[in-house]
Amino acid sequence: MNFLEVLLAAALFALAVVLSLYVGYLTVELTKLKYVFEATRHSNCNSSNSPGSLVLSTCIRLYFNGAFVVEVYNITGDYPYTS
What we know:
Layout: H1 3-40, E1 44-45, E2 53-64, E3 68-78
Antiparallel strand pairs: 1-3, 2-3
């Protein structure tokens, strides 16, 4: 193999590694968003001190993208009322 073939092989390998990491990142993000969608599909996503609701779960998402970002999801449901 000459130098050009080695350089091309190294570039293709680096591209494959970067694409694999990016696909993994997208898979993790899709899983997080699917969790939030499924958790809030039949509930209201309100603040935890809303009257008449019970906090069933809280999803906190932390990530670093140039600045720290915190997203808090309060998944609430209403009390069962009987008459």
